[in-house]
């Protein structure tokens, strides 16, 4: 196991009826920027409830609505401007990962003199940020409890992840019942996203991180058990609660600390989203089994780790090669049959291969130090197989 530092200052209020904790935002000042998406929180009544608590606590609320899935830099710029114009003290996101990510870079952008895009390209330039708070409405990204944010500039076909401990939320409200209204498509995509975060940590070259690997297996089993229940019974609290907590734990450093490895499926997916604006979790589901097959072929010494996944997560028996291969089949079956997700790039509207080389070059640069090193040619062949 490697040395590591673990610090998660985010206070989590988990469960039903935790929204009243929003009154605690008062500790950060009087003026809050409320950041949210396309209106799901208005439909569900969460917006009215949050506004009531904030105003009763004496907070003045300025709003930035309409944050896009795959949040755009234009929204970040608008939000940072609103912070300056209104002397904002803190930023509150109510929504999914896109609203939270946007809020994080707004919070940093408000304290930065240049264009916030600089902060997306280089998280090291984040030297200060307004306090960030969140109310999570979609279990997926883990943004509610991590330091990352992913922002797109679709005019340049670019989508990059940035991060800084300064933008970790101060407090997040995690009420699983807020996810009852999440659509089947987003429920499946969210489950695939948290599974992918777990795979990215699980398939590591660090030896001896047994506890982290076992925790990864527990998170994966939780997603496999409860993803289908949430899909078929959207108001099942137990399923929504387990998925919500799994999403936070998958990326908050608990699984990765001491077992660090470069992520590689995410950089590939971010290129697909940058060029085609697809749903993040759907891209990950399509790429993951193809990547696993590629790993087995390129580096047979990884067979034992894929076999351990098959045995410990799927309960498979047999010799390493057979178990590793069946584990990949099980993964594909779970995403594409059980969770009813699109199974290839054409199914999410990517009907051309013209950008594969350009995307592969960028993804290769972004996946340094991964489980099996990937060249741009390797990634083109993964895109081809996913097509
Ligand atoms: O915009 P609204 O109207 O709120 O609707 C959203 C949106 O259309 C809807 N939704 C959210 N909560 C809902 C709901 N609909 C009904 N009921 C609810 N309770 O779902 C749609 C998708 O929302 P979005 O926030 O885009 O989804 P998600 O949470 O999956 O976030 C995806 C973004 O996060 C990035 C992705 O790349 C993508 O840009 N990621 C962020 C990470 C991080 N910060 O650590 C890591 C991830 O790997 C990921 O890259
Ligand atoms: Zn992700």
Describe the structure.
With 387 residues, this protein is an alpha/beta fold. It contains 14 helices and 8 strands. The chain has helices spanning 40-44, 46-56, 73-85, 97-109, 117-121, 184-202, 210-232, 237-251, 265-276, 280-298, 303-314, 320-338, 356-366, 376-386; strands at 11-14, 31-36, 60-64, 90-95, 132-136, 148-153, 158-163, 171-174. Helix 6 packs parallel to helix 8 (237-251) and helix 9 (265-276) packs across helix 10 (280-298). It is globular and about 65 Å long. The structure holds 5,6-dihydroxy-NADP and zinc ion (ZN). Residues 141, 193, 196-197, 266, 280 line the site of zinc ion. Residues 37-41, 69-70, 95-99, 101, 137-138, 140-143, 146, 148-150, 178-179, 181-182, 186, 190, 193, 251, 266, 280-281 line the site of 5,6-dihydroxy-NADP (NZQ).
What is the number of helical segments per DSSP (H or I, 4+ residues)?
14
Q: Report the sheet with the most strands, covering strand number, pairing sense and barrel closure.
A: 6 strands, parallel
Mean pLDDT: 98
In terms of quaternary structure, the protein is: single chain
Q: Could you state the order of secondary-structure elements as H and E?
A: EEHHEHEHHEEEEHHHHHHHHH
Terminal residue distance: 37 Å
Structural class: alpha/beta
- Backbone shape: globular
List the ligand species: 5,6-dihydroxy-NADP, zinc ion
* Spatial order of the strands forming the largest sheet: 1-8-5-4-2-3
Strand tally is 8
User: Which residue ranges are poorly predicted, with pLDDT under 50 across at least 5 consecutive positions?
Assistant: none
- What amount of the residues lies in strands? 5-15%
Residues in helices, as a percent range: 40-55%
Radius of gyration: 20 Å
